[in-house]
Amino acid sequence: MHVPDGFLDLTTSVATAGIAVGAVGLALRRAGREVEAGPAMPGLVSAFVFAVQMVNFPVGAGTSGHLMGGALAAALVGPATAVVCLTVVLLVQALLFADGGLTALGTNVLLIAVVTVLVGHAVTRGAQRVLPRRPGSVALAAGLGGLVSVPVAALVFVGLYAVGGAVPVDLGHLAAAMLGWHLLIGVGEAVITGAVLSAVLASRPDLVRVARPSGRRLVVVGADGARTAVAASPSAEDAGAPVPLRRPAGAALLVCLVVAGGVSLLASGSPDGLEHVAAAVGFEGAASSSAVSSGPLADYAVAGVPGPLAVTIAGVAGVAATSLVGAGAVRLVARRRAHG
Amino acid sequence: MPVPADRRAAPPPPARPGSLAARPRSLAARPGSLTARPAPRALARPSVRREGLLLPTGSPVHRLPPQTKLAALPAFAACVVAVPAGSWWALATCGVLLLAVVVASRLPVAAVARRMLVEAPVVVFALLLPVVATGPRVDVLGLELSRAGLLGGATLLVKATLGVLAAVVLAATTSSRDLLAGLERLHVPRTMVAILSFAVRYSAVLVQETRRLQVALAVRGGGRPRLRHLRAVAGGVGALFVRGYERGERVQRSMVVRGWTGALPALESSPASALQWAAAGSLPALALVVALTARAAA
Q1: Domains held by chain B: number
Q2: SS3 B259
Q3: Which residues pair with A63 in a beta bridge?
Q4: Angstroms from B229 CA to nearest CA on chain A
Q5: Considering only alpha carbons, which residue of chain B is nearest residue A36?
Q6: Is B199 found in the same domain as B148?
Q7: Where does the pLDDT of residue B17 fall: very low under 50, low under 70, confident under 90, or very high at 90 and above?
Q8: What pLDDT, in 10s, does the model give residues A115-171?
């Protein structure tokens, strides 16, 4: 499942790396207390994921497979910590074991650490809502998460390949092949995730994050009849309320810059959807050129700079200008409110 | 290790690394498991202990500060990826550049070749590409193959091989501790480096524990994996997680007891001189020139 060097072109790799950096940065903040309490626990969970990828599980008919662990890690330690832990595993594999390309590290983090964990977690939570509230349901829900997460990651890969694939492959065939193959892998992942989770639930149910009663509180009635609600367990406190994001705007801006600077290179030179429809319907003449059409950034390229560099500069400058205008507007509104 | 007769049914005593029980051949087959493989002689003489994946030869490449290598080798890989498909002279030049680094670092060829085995799945995919790719077909040995697929598959194979070789050089010339210090020097967030350092240290421990688990399973009649063994294997992995997590909590507590205040002390490392940066940077710089020339020609 690890993407090697040379599979996707450089622009796509840079763009996915930018998105991956943003996502992992957000995960580090969201993991909050768990990570800030100390590096030992997430480090050990990463080591666990690393070790578990070496265990060959029987999946029937004499074949065996190993776990990828996205949905399992999300179920055990929560999605934010799981993203961090799987990223660490991928870093160790790429830097120490040459497993997965150095330039494809961002792609691999995005696919394996971010997509599988988030999809697995979302499906697990969704399934928990539907299934009866019994201990056995937790393992089943996490297994469903594992089942869905693997093919979805494969589909995201097909999408990336469509944008920046090195070799022309029939995308329909590629999608069908990837989906079919990864559906099988997903079944294995589901079985293993469920089995491991029920084993952990049997011995230490308190360690399984998705099995914790979320938001359940004890109501304490004092002697004077006053009611106060307290968390059922000290750890339920931080499970319920994620640490507020301190600088989400900075991370978002970074991702925008990378996407604008890198991905804009990939943008097709053909007219975008709206322009195409306009031309087809025949009212393109009605849209007169705007005042900036002769400006320095006209049609998203910088005058006097050749080729792709111009598009990149235009993209980055566009993001910078937009965010400056946005920040100015926000400040104006804030000042008005302060006065009013 | 003598085992009393009455204890045979009990879980096997922790196999000492290096003893036969710790490394059944069939279980140690994964190429990525190099840290886990115990080095008996190294344990006997701790002074010459091999540190993880480092192959110490004391070459100039080994002596370069880790941050320069950490920047240079991925940059080199990026330049290789940027070479357009079918530009064989450019890829060959990049290969010669990297091989020059391998020669300069005096790494044993056999060990490097063994570590390159991790590339095997990519080779399979690259061989499949000519069959599945679209475009005009050519007849090769009675097979209808896509021309673009042949070109792309061969390019992918070369690029992936160079990428893997670059990563192998990085890991073989830099100890894992230096790698972490280098990441810190490159301003990777401290929290991330701290987690990474724990993951690197405890991966070896947990992999050893996994091997013991597999041995314990095998001696109880595990044999070939069958579906009815799933519960047993999953139970073992569940126990592995619980042990790992509890170990993490214990380590954390003992760190707090010893005065941990919320940040690990910076790893001891020295800044790189301009000369060292230039030496490490020469590899990606030359590769960049090659890649740009190839792109301009294409």
Answers
A1: 2
A2: coil
A3: A60
A4: 7
A5: B262
A6: no
A7: very low
A8: 999 999 999 988 888 887 777 788 899 999 999 998 899 899 888 888 877 777 778
Chain B residues with CB under 8 Å of A38 CB are: 252, 255-256, 260
Q: Flag if A97 and B241 touch (Cβ within 8 Å).
A: no
Residues in chain B closer than 8 A to A199 (CB atoms) = 231, 234-235, 237-239
Question: Is there a domain that residue B220 lies in?
Answer: yes
Q: Which of A150-154, A234-238, B7-11 has the lowest mean pLDDT?
A: B7-11
- Indicate the range of A194-198, B213-217, B237-241 predicted with least confidence: B213-217
Is residue B249, in this structure, part of any structural domain at all?
yes
CATH code (residue A53)? 1.10.1760.20
Q: Looking at chain B, how many residues does it have?
A: 298
Q: How do residues B264-285 score in pLDDT, each as one tens digit?
A: 777 777 788 888 888 888 888 9
DSSP B91-128: HHHHHHHHHHHHHHTT--HHHHHHHGGGGHHHHHHHHH
For chain B, the maximum distance between any two Cα atoms, rounded to a whole number of angstroms, is 76
pLDDT in tens, A171-188: 888 888 888 888 888 888
- Give me the domain span that covers residue A304: 10-211+267-339
Asked if the structure places residue A60 within a domain, the reply is yes
Torsion over CA: B27, B28, B30, B36 (sign): positive
B159 and B200 co-located in one domain:
no
Cα–Cα distance for residue pair A206/B249, rounded to 1 Å: 14
Q: Which of residues 257-276 of B touch A (CB under 8 A)?
A: 260, 262, 264
**Residue B177 to chain A, least CA–CA distance (Å):** 11
Chain A residues near residue B234 by CB distance under 8 angstroms: 57, 192, 195-196, 198-199
